[in-house]
Amino acid sequence: MTDPQQNTEVTADFWFDPLCPWAWMTSRWMLEVEKVRPVRVRWNVMSLAVLNEDRLDELPESYRELLTQAWGPVRVVIAAQQLHGAEVAGPLYTALGTRYHNQQQPKDRATLVAALEEVGLPADLADYADKDTYDAELRASHAAGITKVGQDVGTPVIAVPGADGEEVAFFGPVVTPAPKGDQAAALWDGTLLVASVPGFYELKRTRTAEPSFD
Question: Rounded to two decimals, what is the model's pTM?
């Protein structure tokens, strides 16, 4: 487990799909963690569309409709990474997520263009929403995250170096609203504590609230 008192910065890899509201909550918590712990988040894409492509018949119609919309945003993020560097993923995710979740803007080309322009990226990257140009890279990034935790979970996935040198990876945490300050630090320390225990797999309770984007 990462010692919360250590001064050496550690990298936390975070895999997200821009459309997932719960991943969005967790990502905003991770930005708080960066302020209160020596942690730097490295943003990576995964895809709910890829995750569920072989089990569409098992899913409710409303969720299948969401998955048809899920290809575009994640394709745009992976294209931006490939063409403009990995570091653009975090700012672009924030620009997209703020529009999709906080502002409830439509999942259309105009929203993609506005997010791209906000972070100084070319608007024509939105063209990649309908192209499979970088689907191989998207699938590779997705696989890098999901294979750490198994196919029975979704987004987000987080992976950090453990105290013994072994990687600690987990799905979640699923939380709302996004904790801040000392509460953010406590959740980070506690999550790493349980995730680092060999053989620990699950701690869960029924969600009784929707994501709060305040």
Answer: 0.93
Query: Strand pairing of 157-161 and 167-171?
Result: antiparallel
Please give the helix or strand (H or E) that residue 143 lies within, else none: helix 135-146
Sketch out the chain's domains with CATH numbers. 8-194 (3.40.30.10)
Contact 171, 156 (CB under 8 A): yes
Q: For the CA atoms of 201, 49, 119, 115, what is the dihedral angle to 10 degrees?
A: -120
pLDDT (0 to 100) of residue 3: 52
Collect all residues with Cβ–Cβ distance below 8 Å to 160 and sequence separation of at least 6. Answer: 2, 10, 11, 12, 13, 39, 167, 168, 169, 192
For β-strands 10-16 and 39-45, DSSP reports them as: parallel
Instruction: Tell me the DSSP string of 145-169.
Output: HHTTT-TT--S-EEEEE-TTS-EEE
Judged against a pLDDT cut of 80, whether residue 2 lies above it is answered with: no
At 59-105, the pLDDT tens digits run 888 888 888 899 999 999 999 999 999 999 999 999 999 999 999 99
pLDDT, residue 6, reads 56
Burial code of 16-31, b = ≥16 C-beta within 10 A, e = fewer?
bbbbbebbbbbbbbbe
